[in-house]
Amino acid sequence: MPDTPPDSSPPPKPSLPKRWGIGLNVVLQVILVLAIFFGVNRLSYRYHARWDLSPQQSFTLSSATLNYVSKLPKDVFIANVFARDSKIFPDVQALLEEYRINGRGRVKLRSIDPLRDIERAEELKAETGLALDQNGIVIRVGSRTRFIREEELVIRETGNQAVRAIKEFRGEDAVTSAMINLIEGGERKFYLVLGKGARTETALTDVMAALGGLGRQQNFQLLPLNLADISRVPEDADGLLLIGLRYDLSEREVEMLKAYWESKRAGLLVMLDPAGETPRLHAFLGINGVTPREDRVLYAESTGTGTRKEFSVQAIFDNESSITQPLAASTVTMPGQSQSLDVRFDDEYLLNQNITVRALIGASDRYWGEKNYLEELPLVDEEDTKAPIFLAASVERGSVADERLRMDTCRMVVVGNASMLDKKTALGVNRDFVAGCLNWILNREKLSGAPPKQKHSYRIQLNPRQNELIFWITTIAMPGLVLGLGMMVWASRRAA
Protein backbone atom coordinates (compact mmCIF):
# COMPACT_ATOMS: atom_id res chain seq x y z
CA MET A 1 0.00 0.00 0.00
CA PRO A 2 1.24 3.42 -0.78
CA ASP A 3 2.31 5.50 2.19
CA THR A 4 -0.39 7.79 3.43
CA PRO A 5 0.82 11.37 3.48
CA PRO A 6 0.82 12.95 6.96
CA ASP A 7 -2.05 15.22 7.86
CA SER A 8 -0.70 18.75 7.64
CA SER A 9 -3.97 20.48 8.55
CA PRO A 10 -3.77 22.91 11.53
CA PRO A 11 -4.99 21.59 14.94
CA PRO A 12 -8.52 22.57 15.85
CA LYS A 13 -8.94 25.68 17.98
CA PRO A 14 -10.14 25.14 21.56
CA SER A 15 -13.81 25.52 21.92
CA LEU A 16 -15.30 28.47 23.74
CA PRO A 17 -16.73 26.39 26.63
CA LYS A 18 -13.25 25.05 27.42
CA ARG A 19 -11.86 28.59 27.73
CA TRP A 20 -14.69 29.53 30.02
CA GLY A 21 -13.93 26.46 32.14
CA ILE A 22 -10.28 27.45 32.56
CA GLY A 23 -11.24 31.02 33.44
CA LEU A 24 -13.82 29.86 35.95
CA ASN A 25 -11.26 27.52 37.52
CA VAL A 26 -8.79 30.43 37.90
CA VAL A 27 -11.47 32.64 39.45
CA LEU A 28 -12.45 29.92 41.90
CA GLN A 29 -8.82 29.40 42.86
CA VAL A 30 -8.37 33.14 43.45
CA ILE A 31 -11.55 33.25 45.56
CA LEU A 32 -10.43 30.20 47.53
CA VAL A 33 -6.98 31.70 48.19
CA LEU A 34 -8.55 34.98 49.35
CA ALA A 35 -11.02 33.09 51.56
CA ILE A 36 -8.21 31.10 53.14
CA PHE A 37 -6.13 34.25 53.60
CA PHE A 38 -8.87 36.25 55.29
CA GLY A 39 -10.10 33.21 57.21
CA VAL A 40 -6.65 32.50 58.64
CA ASN A 41 -6.24 36.18 59.56
CA ARG A 42 -9.63 36.16 61.24
CA LEU A 43 -8.79 33.04 63.22
CA SER A 44 -5.36 34.40 64.19
CA TYR A 45 -7.02 37.61 65.39
CA ARG A 46 -9.53 35.82 67.59
CA TYR A 47 -7.44 32.84 68.65
CA HIS A 48 -3.76 33.52 69.13
CA ALA A 49 -1.03 32.88 71.66
CA ARG A 50 1.78 35.08 72.90
CA TRP A 51 5.11 34.00 74.36
CA ASP A 52 7.35 36.07 76.63
CA LEU A 53 10.89 34.93 75.80
CA SER A 54 12.65 37.50 78.00
CA PRO A 55 14.86 35.87 80.71
CA GLN A 56 13.02 37.53 83.61
CA GLN A 57 9.54 37.29 82.06
CA SER A 58 9.48 41.09 81.97
CA PHE A 59 6.41 41.29 79.73
CA THR A 60 4.24 38.81 81.65
CA LEU A 61 1.89 39.71 84.49
CA SER A 62 2.63 38.16 87.88
CA SER A 63 0.60 35.16 88.99
CA ALA A 64 -1.17 37.27 91.67
CA THR A 65 -2.30 39.83 89.09
CA LEU A 66 -3.33 37.12 86.63
CA ASN A 67 -5.47 35.43 89.29
CA TYR A 68 -7.12 38.73 90.18
CA VAL A 69 -7.71 39.99 86.63
CA SER A 70 -9.15 36.67 85.47
CA LYS A 71 -11.83 36.87 88.21
CA LEU A 72 -12.79 40.54 88.07
CA PRO A 73 -16.29 41.09 89.50
CA LYS A 74 -16.81 44.35 87.55
CA ASP A 75 -15.94 45.83 84.16
CA VAL A 76 -12.79 47.95 84.11
CA PHE A 77 -12.07 50.70 81.57
CA ILE A 78 -8.41 51.67 81.03
CA ALA A 79 -7.16 54.54 78.88
CA ASN A 80 -3.48 54.81 78.00
CA VAL A 81 -3.05 58.58 77.78
CA PHE A 82 0.58 58.78 76.68
CA ALA A 83 2.33 60.69 73.93
CA ARG A 84 3.88 58.24 71.47
CA ASP A 85 7.33 59.76 71.92
CA SER A 86 7.37 59.03 75.67
CA LYS A 87 10.23 56.73 76.68
CA ILE A 88 7.96 54.39 78.60
CA PHE A 89 5.06 54.35 76.11
CA PRO A 90 6.03 50.90 74.70
CA ASP A 91 6.27 49.44 78.21
CA VAL A 92 2.94 50.95 79.27
CA GLN A 93 1.15 49.80 76.12
CA ALA A 94 2.52 46.25 76.40
CA LEU A 95 1.55 46.10 80.08
CA LEU A 96 -2.02 47.31 79.53
CA GLU A 97 -2.44 44.95 76.59
CA GLU A 98 -1.69 42.08 78.99
CA TYR A 99 -4.49 43.28 81.28
CA ARG A 100 -6.88 43.38 78.33
CA ILE A 101 -5.94 39.92 77.06
CA ASN A 102 -6.18 38.26 80.49
CA GLY A 103 -9.27 40.18 81.64
CA ARG A 104 -11.68 37.71 79.97
CA GLY A 105 -13.64 40.53 78.36
CA ARG A 106 -13.90 42.57 81.58
CA VAL A 107 -11.05 44.96 80.71
CA LYS A 108 -11.65 47.53 77.97
CA LEU A 109 -8.54 49.30 76.70
CA ARG A 110 -8.22 52.52 74.72
CA SER A 111 -4.96 54.20 73.67
CA ILE A 112 -5.06 57.99 73.25
CA ASP A 113 -2.19 60.26 72.23
CA PRO A 114 -3.17 63.65 73.73
CA LEU A 115 -0.99 65.47 71.16
CA ARG A 116 -2.49 63.77 68.08
CA ASP A 117 -5.92 62.47 69.15
CA ILE A 118 -7.11 65.81 70.47
CA GLU A 119 -10.81 65.10 69.91
CA ARG A 120 -10.73 61.76 71.72
CA ALA A 121 -8.67 63.28 74.55
CA GLU A 122 -11.29 66.03 75.01
CA GLU A 123 -14.05 63.41 75.08
CA LEU A 124 -12.20 61.51 77.82
CA LYS A 125 -11.74 64.72 79.81
CA ALA A 126 -15.48 65.38 79.62
CA GLU A 127 -16.32 61.81 80.66
CA THR A 128 -13.95 61.64 83.63
CA GLY A 129 -13.68 65.26 84.73
CA LEU A 130 -9.88 64.96 84.79
CA ALA A 131 -7.51 67.62 83.45
CA LEU A 132 -5.21 65.04 81.74
CA ASP A 133 -2.49 67.67 81.49
CA GLN A 134 0.29 65.07 81.61
CA ASN A 135 1.02 61.50 80.57
CA GLY A 136 -0.71 58.83 82.61
CA ILE A 137 -3.24 56.00 82.82
CA VAL A 138 -6.95 56.48 83.47
CA ILE A 139 -8.73 53.59 85.20
CA ARG A 140 -12.48 53.69 85.71
CA VAL A 141 -14.73 51.19 87.51
CA GLY A 142 -18.37 52.25 87.56
CA SER A 143 -18.47 55.83 88.82
CA ARG A 144 -14.99 55.68 90.41
CA THR A 145 -12.00 56.99 88.47
CA ARG A 146 -8.27 57.01 89.17
CA PHE A 147 -5.54 58.78 87.19
CA ILE A 148 -2.05 57.33 87.55
CA ARG A 149 0.58 59.89 86.60
CA GLU A 150 3.70 58.93 84.68
CA GLU A 151 5.94 59.56 87.70
CA GLU A 152 3.95 57.01 89.72
CA LEU A 153 4.91 54.33 87.21
CA VAL A 154 8.68 54.76 87.42
CA ILE A 155 11.48 55.14 89.93
CA ARG A 156 14.23 57.45 88.75
CA GLU A 157 17.88 57.64 89.69
CA THR A 158 18.82 60.16 92.34
CA GLY A 159 20.68 63.31 91.38
CA ASN A 160 20.33 66.98 90.52
CA GLN A 161 20.18 66.65 86.75
CA ALA A 162 17.08 68.00 85.02
CA VAL A 163 16.16 64.68 83.42
CA ARG A 164 17.00 61.72 85.62
CA ALA A 165 17.26 58.27 84.06
CA ILE A 166 14.59 55.68 84.83
CA LYS A 167 15.87 52.99 87.18
CA GLU A 168 12.72 50.86 87.62
CA PHE A 169 9.37 50.50 85.93
CA ARG A 170 6.66 49.62 88.46
CA GLY A 171 3.63 49.91 86.23
CA GLU A 172 2.05 46.61 87.27
CA ASP A 173 2.25 47.62 90.94
CA ALA A 174 0.46 50.90 90.29
CA VAL A 175 -2.21 49.55 87.92
CA THR A 176 -3.13 46.50 90.01
CA SER A 177 -3.25 48.52 93.24
CA ALA A 178 -5.46 51.19 91.63
CA MET A 179 -7.75 48.51 90.20
CA ILE A 180 -8.16 46.88 93.63
CA ASN A 181 -8.80 50.27 95.22
CA LEU A 182 -11.54 51.15 92.73
CA ILE A 183 -13.27 47.77 92.98
CA GLU A 184 -13.09 47.51 96.79
CA GLY A 185 -13.88 51.19 97.33
CA GLY A 186 -10.82 52.17 99.38
CA GLU A 187 -7.56 51.06 100.94
CA ARG A 188 -7.46 48.32 103.56
CA LYS A 189 -5.55 48.95 106.79
CA PHE A 190 -2.95 46.89 108.61
CA TYR A 191 -1.62 48.08 111.98
CA LEU A 192 1.96 47.18 112.88
CA VAL A 193 2.33 46.77 116.65
CA LEU A 194 5.29 48.78 117.99
CA GLY A 195 6.65 49.47 121.47
CA LYS A 196 7.49 45.85 122.31
CA GLY A 197 11.11 45.89 121.29
CA ALA A 198 12.73 44.54 118.15
CA ARG A 199 15.75 42.44 117.27
CA THR A 200 17.55 45.50 115.87
CA GLU A 201 16.57 48.87 114.49
CA THR A 202 17.76 47.72 111.07
CA ALA A 203 15.47 44.67 111.22
CA LEU A 204 12.49 46.88 112.11
CA THR A 205 13.33 49.23 109.23
CA ASP A 206 13.56 46.29 106.83
CA VAL A 207 10.16 44.97 107.96
CA MET A 208 8.48 48.36 107.52
CA ALA A 209 10.08 48.88 104.10
CA ALA A 210 9.05 45.42 102.88
CA LEU A 211 5.49 45.75 104.17
CA GLY A 212 5.24 49.28 102.76
CA GLY A 213 6.24 47.98 99.33
CA LEU A 214 3.64 45.22 99.55
CA GLY A 215 1.07 47.81 100.59
CA ARG A 216 1.68 49.83 97.43
CA GLN A 217 1.18 46.69 95.35
CA GLN A 218 -1.76 45.18 97.22
CA ASN A 219 -3.62 48.39 98.08
CA PHE A 220 -3.36 48.51 101.86
CA GLN A 221 -2.03 51.08 104.32
CA LEU A 222 0.58 50.21 106.93
CA LEU A 223 -0.04 52.17 110.14
CA PRO A 224 1.88 52.08 113.47
CA LEU A 225 0.05 51.06 116.64
CA ASN A 226 1.18 51.13 120.28
CA LEU A 227 -1.16 48.95 122.34
CA ALA A 228 -0.21 50.84 125.50
CA ASP A 229 -1.84 54.01 124.14
CA ILE A 230 -5.26 52.57 123.25
CA SER A 231 -8.14 50.85 125.02
CA ARG A 232 -9.28 48.77 122.05
CA VAL A 233 -8.07 47.81 118.60
CA PRO A 234 -9.22 50.39 116.00
CA GLU A 235 -12.47 49.39 114.33
CA ASP A 236 -11.06 50.03 110.86
CA ALA A 237 -8.24 47.52 111.39
CA ASP A 238 -8.32 44.81 108.74
CA GLY A 239 -5.40 43.14 110.47
CA LEU A 240 -2.78 43.40 113.22
CA LEU A 241 0.88 42.60 112.54
CA LEU A 242 2.95 41.36 115.49
CA ILE A 243 6.41 40.89 114.04
CA GLY A 244 9.52 40.11 116.07
CA LEU A 245 8.23 41.20 119.49
CA ARG A 246 10.94 40.96 122.15
CA TYR A 247 8.79 41.87 125.16
CA ASP A 248 5.50 40.33 126.20
CA LEU A 249 2.03 41.81 126.07
CA SER A 250 0.48 42.98 129.31
CA GLU A 251 -2.69 41.31 130.61
CA ARG A 252 -4.73 44.30 129.45
CA GLU A 253 -3.20 44.10 125.97
CA VAL A 254 -3.89 40.35 125.78
CA GLU A 255 -7.54 41.03 126.65
CA MET A 256 -7.67 43.62 123.83
CA LEU A 257 -6.18 41.06 121.47
CA LYS A 258 -8.74 38.43 122.52
CA ALA A 259 -11.62 40.88 122.09
CA TYR A 260 -10.40 41.75 118.61
CA TRP A 261 -9.96 38.08 117.65
CA GLU A 262 -13.46 37.25 118.88
CA SER A 263 -15.04 40.02 116.81
CA LYS A 264 -16.94 39.33 113.61
CA ARG A 265 -13.96 40.02 111.37
CA ALA A 266 -10.31 39.92 112.50
CA GLY A 267 -6.91 39.23 111.00
CA LEU A 268 -3.54 38.56 112.63
CA LEU A 269 -0.04 37.93 111.29
CA VAL A 270 2.33 36.83 114.06
CA MET A 271 6.01 36.35 113.23
CA LEU A 272 7.77 35.16 116.37
CA ASP A 273 11.26 36.07 117.50
CA PRO A 274 12.57 32.84 119.11
CA ALA A 275 14.68 34.94 121.49
CA GLY A 276 11.69 36.99 122.65
CA GLU A 277 10.15 36.56 126.11
CA THR A 278 6.44 36.47 125.26
CA PRO A 279 4.65 33.80 127.38
CA ARG A 280 1.27 35.57 127.32
CA LEU A 281 1.35 35.84 123.55
CA HIS A 282 2.32 32.15 123.34
CA ALA A 283 -0.62 31.22 125.59
CA PHE A 284 -3.03 33.17 123.36
CA LEU A 285 -1.72 31.35 120.30
CA GLY A 286 -1.91 28.00 122.07
CA ILE A 287 -5.59 28.46 122.85
CA ASN A 288 -6.15 28.79 119.10
CA GLY A 289 -4.29 25.64 118.15
CA VAL A 290 -0.69 26.77 117.55
CA THR A 291 1.76 26.56 120.46
CA PRO A 292 5.35 27.83 119.97
CA ARG A 293 7.94 25.45 121.42
CA GLU A 294 10.98 26.59 123.41
CA ASP A 295 13.49 25.18 120.96
CA ARG A 296 15.49 26.02 117.84
CA VAL A 297 15.12 24.21 114.56
CA LEU A 298 18.60 23.20 113.41
CA TYR A 299 20.86 20.58 111.90
CA ALA A 300 24.19 19.64 113.49
CA GLU A 301 26.95 17.18 112.69
CA SER A 302 30.59 16.53 113.42
CA THR A 303 32.91 16.92 110.44
CA GLY A 304 36.61 16.55 109.84
CA THR A 305 37.06 20.31 110.26
CA GLY A 306 34.94 20.57 113.42
CA THR A 307 31.34 20.90 114.45
CA ARG A 308 28.82 22.10 111.91
CA LYS A 309 25.65 23.66 113.34
CA GLU A 310 23.11 25.03 110.85
CA PHE A 311 20.26 27.29 112.04
CA SER A 312 19.18 28.44 108.58
CA VAL A 313 16.39 26.01 107.71
CA GLN A 314 15.53 24.62 104.28
CA ALA A 315 11.77 24.11 104.21
CA ILE A 316 8.88 23.30 101.89
CA PHE A 317 5.40 24.77 101.45
CA ASP A 318 2.11 22.96 101.92
CA ASN A 319 0.51 22.24 98.53
CA GLU A 320 -3.13 22.42 99.64
CA SER A 321 -3.52 25.74 101.42
CA SER A 322 -4.63 28.66 99.23
CA ILE A 323 -1.78 30.68 100.80
CA THR A 324 1.06 28.39 99.81
CA GLN A 325 -0.33 26.41 96.88
CA PRO A 326 1.06 28.89 94.28
CA LEU A 327 4.49 28.49 95.93
CA ALA A 328 4.41 24.71 96.42
CA ALA A 329 6.97 24.11 93.67
CA SER A 330 9.50 26.35 95.45
CA THR A 331 11.63 25.74 98.52
CA VAL A 332 12.02 28.38 101.19
CA THR A 333 15.00 29.24 103.38
CA MET A 334 14.17 30.46 106.87
CA PRO A 335 17.11 32.74 107.76
CA GLY A 336 18.31 33.45 111.28
CA GLN A 337 16.81 31.26 113.99
CA SER A 338 13.40 29.56 113.97
CA GLN A 339 11.32 27.80 116.62
CA SER A 340 9.01 24.89 115.88
CA LEU A 341 5.25 25.06 116.30
CA ASP A 342 2.98 22.49 117.91
CA VAL A 343 0.03 22.46 115.48
CA ARG A 344 -3.11 20.74 116.81
CA PHE A 345 -5.16 19.67 113.79
CA ASP A 346 -7.89 17.51 115.35
CA ASP A 347 -8.26 19.01 118.80
CA GLU A 348 -11.83 18.52 120.15
CA TYR A 349 -11.94 21.97 121.74
CA LEU A 350 -10.95 23.62 118.44
CA LEU A 351 -13.55 21.64 116.52
CA ASN A 352 -16.24 22.76 118.97
CA GLN A 353 -15.12 26.37 118.49
CA ASN A 354 -15.22 25.93 114.70
CA ILE A 355 -11.50 26.64 114.43
CA THR A 356 -9.53 25.11 111.55
CA VAL A 357 -5.75 24.83 111.83
CA ARG A 358 -3.44 24.01 108.91
CA ALA A 359 0.35 23.75 108.62
CA LEU A 360 1.86 26.00 105.95
CA ILE A 361 5.63 25.40 106.08
CA GLY A 362 7.48 22.26 107.13
CA ALA A 363 11.22 21.81 107.62
CA SER A 364 13.15 19.28 105.57
CA ASP A 365 13.61 15.86 107.20
CA ARG A 366 17.18 16.38 108.39
CA TYR A 367 16.22 19.22 110.78
CA TRP A 368 14.86 18.82 114.31
CA GLY A 369 13.71 21.06 117.17
CA GLU A 370 16.60 21.20 119.66
CA LYS A 371 16.06 22.20 123.29
CA ASN A 372 19.77 22.45 124.12
CA TYR A 373 20.68 24.48 121.07
CA LEU A 374 23.55 26.27 122.86
CA GLU A 375 25.60 23.07 123.08
CA GLU A 376 28.58 22.83 120.79
CA LEU A 377 27.28 19.63 119.16
CA PRO A 378 23.56 19.14 119.88
CA LEU A 379 22.26 15.60 119.46
CA VAL A 380 18.69 14.42 119.02
CA ASP A 381 17.26 13.02 122.25
CA GLU A 382 13.87 12.30 123.80
CA GLU A 383 13.04 15.90 124.77
CA ASP A 384 13.69 17.24 121.28
CA THR A 385 11.06 17.60 118.53
CA LYS A 386 11.46 15.25 115.62
CA ALA A 387 9.94 15.34 112.13
CA PRO A 388 7.51 16.57 111.06
CA ILE A 389 8.70 20.03 112.08
CA PHE A 390 6.22 22.85 111.39
CA LEU A 391 7.45 26.44 111.04
CA ALA A 392 4.25 28.24 110.01
CA ALA A 393 0.53 27.57 110.37
CA SER A 394 -2.81 29.21 109.61
CA VAL A 395 -5.82 29.47 111.91
CA GLU A 396 -9.35 30.22 110.72
CA ARG A 397 -12.31 30.68 113.06
CA GLY A 398 -15.83 30.36 111.70
CA SER A 399 -14.85 28.59 108.47
CA VAL A 400 -17.42 26.72 106.40
CA ALA A 401 -17.06 24.46 103.40
CA ASP A 402 -18.72 26.91 100.99
CA GLU A 403 -16.13 29.54 99.96
CA ARG A 404 -18.90 32.06 99.19
CA LEU A 405 -19.88 32.21 102.88
CA ARG A 406 -16.41 32.75 104.34
CA MET A 407 -16.23 36.54 104.18
CA ASP A 408 -16.69 37.08 107.95
CA THR A 409 -14.18 34.51 109.19
CA CYS A 410 -11.35 35.47 111.53
CA ARG A 411 -7.96 34.50 110.14
CA MET A 412 -4.49 34.27 111.65
CA VAL A 413 -1.06 33.17 110.40
CA VAL A 414 1.70 32.23 112.87
CA VAL A 415 5.34 31.92 111.77
CA GLY A 416 8.13 30.69 114.04
CA ASN A 417 10.64 33.07 112.47
CA ALA A 418 10.94 36.86 112.46
CA SER A 419 13.77 37.19 109.91
CA MET A 420 11.90 36.40 106.69
CA LEU A 421 11.75 40.06 105.64
CA ASP A 422 15.33 41.01 106.48
CA LYS A 423 16.81 42.81 103.50
CA LYS A 424 20.17 41.02 103.46
CA THR A 425 18.90 37.46 103.79
CA ALA A 426 15.32 37.46 102.46
CA LEU A 427 14.62 35.74 99.17
CA GLY A 428 11.84 36.66 96.78
CA VAL A 429 9.82 33.60 97.81
CA ASN A 430 9.84 34.80 101.44
CA ARG A 431 8.27 38.07 100.37
CA ASP A 432 5.76 36.20 98.21
CA PHE A 433 4.76 34.05 101.18
CA VAL A 434 4.15 37.10 103.39
CA ALA A 435 2.12 38.72 100.60
CA GLY A 436 0.03 35.56 100.33
CA CYS A 437 -0.58 35.58 104.09
CA LEU A 438 -1.75 39.21 104.04
CA ASN A 439 -4.10 38.63 101.10
CA TRP A 440 -5.53 35.51 102.75
CA ILE A 441 -6.16 37.48 105.95
CA LEU A 442 -8.06 40.03 103.84
CA ASN A 443 -10.11 37.25 102.18
CA ARG A 444 -8.41 38.02 98.88
CA GLU A 445 -7.80 34.51 97.59
CA LYS A 446 -8.06 35.99 94.08
CA LEU A 447 -4.70 37.67 94.69
CA SER A 448 -2.93 34.45 95.66
CA GLY A 449 0.38 33.91 93.94
CA ALA A 450 3.63 35.78 93.49
CA PRO A 451 3.12 39.57 93.55
CA PRO A 452 4.49 41.87 90.83
CA LYS A 453 8.21 42.36 90.42
CA GLN A 454 9.70 45.65 89.34
CA LYS A 455 11.14 45.86 85.85
CA HIS A 456 14.70 47.15 86.24
CA SER A 457 16.79 49.10 83.77
CA TYR A 458 20.43 48.10 83.38
CA ARG A 459 23.41 49.94 81.96
CA ILE A 460 26.38 48.30 80.27
CA GLN A 461 29.53 50.31 80.81
CA LEU A 462 32.05 49.83 77.95
CA ASN A 463 35.64 51.02 77.99
CA PRO A 464 37.20 52.66 74.87
CA ARG A 465 38.85 49.38 73.81
CA GLN A 466 35.50 47.56 73.85
CA ASN A 467 33.81 50.38 71.92
CA GLU A 468 36.53 50.22 69.27
CA LEU A 469 36.20 46.43 68.99
CA ILE A 470 32.43 46.67 68.49
CA PHE A 471 32.93 49.35 65.82
CA TRP A 472 35.34 47.20 63.78
CA ILE A 473 33.17 44.08 64.07
CA THR A 474 29.91 45.76 63.06
CA THR A 475 31.20 48.14 60.37
CA ILE A 476 34.10 46.22 58.80
CA ALA A 477 34.23 42.53 59.71
CA MET A 478 30.57 41.52 59.36
CA PRO A 479 29.89 43.45 56.09
CA GLY A 480 33.24 42.22 54.74
CA LEU A 481 32.28 38.61 55.51
CA VAL A 482 28.98 38.99 53.64
CA LEU A 483 30.78 40.65 50.69
CA GLY A 484 33.38 37.88 50.59
CA LEU A 485 30.73 35.13 50.53
CA GLY A 486 28.92 36.96 47.72
CA MET A 487 32.12 37.21 45.67
CA MET A 488 32.80 33.49 46.15
CA VAL A 489 29.31 32.58 44.91
CA TRP A 490 29.72 34.92 41.89
CA ALA A 491 33.13 33.47 41.01
CA SER A 492 31.91 29.87 41.24
CA ARG A 493 29.01 30.64 38.89
CA ARG A 494 31.32 32.37 36.40
CA ALA A 495 33.60 29.35 36.39
CA ALA A 496 30.67 27.00 35.73
From TrEMBL:
Pfam families tied to this protein: DUF7088 (PF23357)
Superkingdom of origin: Bacteria
Keywords, sorted A to Z: Membrane, Transmembrane, Transmembrane helix
Listed transmembrane segments: 20-40, 469-491
Domain DUF7088: 56-131
Protein name: DUF7088 domain-containing protein
High-level lineage: Bacteria, Pseudomonadati, Verrucomicrobiota, Verrucomicrobiia, Verrucomicrobiales
